[in-house]
Amino acid sequence: MTGIDDLPIRDELRGKSPYGAPQLDVPVRLNTNENPYPLPEPLVARIAERVAEAARGLNRYPDRDAVELRTELARYLSRTAGLEVGVAQVWAANGSNEVLQQLLQAFGGPGRTAMGFEPSYSMHALISRSTGTGWISGPRSADFTIDVDAARKAIAEHRPDVLFITSPNNPTGTAVEAETVLALHDAAQAARADAAGALVVVDEAYGEFSHRPSLLPLIEGRPRLVLSRTMSKAFGAAGLRLGYLAADPAVVDAVQLVRLPYHLSAVTQATALAALEHTDTLLGYVDALKAERDRLVAELRTLGCEVTDSDANFVQFGRFEDAHAAWQGLLDRGVLVRDNGVPGWLRVTAGTPAENDAFLDAVRELMKEKS
Ligand code: PMP
């Protein structure tokens, strides 16, 4: 049988496995930071309408620049994220993963490096590698915040071309202060003052769940600062695959050099536009999930777990001598959470109240066993 390594595959891909959490069929799935609420029926009906309309034109390529969709995304950000932005400042792609890939294709690449503060979203490193960009793992404190002095030192030493700041951070849930983002942005520009500076990507995939306001206003007057967002979490539309960025119009011009023509299908654009018409209903679910997230933090602490403060729709909890055994113990009780490989810690996504109750019952049993 032919294996991958028998093929003339790129050397750096030999022996690698594809990224992805297990998709197991268990009663309570709280492992991939999805929104547990299905889209409301009136929105499902509106999607069907919009998609039917799009279907009549599927013999043609879609709007290559997705102008209507970007206009609506700009309106959404302007209304909710603290800064008025226009269509020229917004770009959209198939999930924020594709947004990040396009940014690395344009600003990373062979001979260049990207840096992030780990543990963080592991796709930052993986997309860096797959675009030929060197990866540098920056430091994080024991409480999972970013120590500005240590981070500044690492930036000055490694002089990354691209700097990732994830806020709220995955898998820890930790939000990053605006002052920290500004300090790291300035350090990254200073380190590459001899080139054209560095691109700083604030990954705000979980921004809507934060106790704090969005970091969007920081892009003003900083053409090298990019905010990345997604409809996968707050809009409850992980299956849609729609991510977007807000930045200086020059950044949008730059990603257009690497995007595939017609990368966003007409069906995707129609579906996303329908979802944006129902923003207020969907943000109502976000409020419910934030309350459940806060309840998970409080109750896990009552059960004797250590819990990292969370600004996301998930919670990092521990500490377990053997996190993988604890993960298995919860799975045996019908609850799937995520083992991100952070020693001692697991991550649970906030689900419906019933799912969270089932999870908390399973943890209660596990903690009893432990003591
Ligand atoms: N950024 C972060 C921090 C994430 O956790 C995720 C999804 N897990 C993404 C980006 C990518 O999300 P999507 O491609 O669905 O927009």
TrEMBL record:
Annotated keywords: Amino-acid biosynthesis, Aminotransferase, Histidine biosynthesis, Pyridoxal phosphate, Transferase
Metabolic or biological pathway: Amino-acid biosynthesis; L-histidine biosynthesis; L-histidine from 5-phospho-alpha-D-ribose 1-diphosphate: step 7/9
Keyword Amino-acid biosynthesis: yes
Keyword Transferase: yes
Ranges where the Aminotransferase class I/classII large domain occurs: 28-362
Disordered as annotated region, ranges: 1-26
Coiled-coil residue windows: none
Primary enzyme class: transferase
One Pfam family, short name: Aminotran_1_2
Location of N6-(pyridoxal phosphate)lysine modifications: 233
UniProt-listed Enzyme Commission number(s): 2.6.1.9
Cofactor needs: pyridoxal 5'-phosphate
InterPro entries from the UniProt entry: Aminotrans_II_pyridoxalP_BS, Aminotransferase_I/II_large, HisP_aminotrans, PyrdxlP-dep_Trfase, PyrdxlP-dep_Trfase_major, PyrdxlP-dep_Trfase_small
GO MF annotation terms: transaminase activity
Catalytic activities: L-histidinol phosphate + 2-oxoglutarate = 3-(imidazol-4-yl)-2-oxopropyl phosphate + L-glutamate
Subunit structure: Homodimer.
PANTHER family in the cross-refs: HISTIDINOL-PHOSPHATE AMINOTRANSFERASE, HISTIDINOL-PHOSPHATE AMINOTRANSFERASE-RELATED
Family: Belongs to the class-II pyridoxal-phosphate-dependent aminotransferase family. Histidinol-phosphate aminotransferase subfamily.
Identification of the protein by name: Histidinol-phosphate aminotransferase
Gene that this sequence comes from: hisC
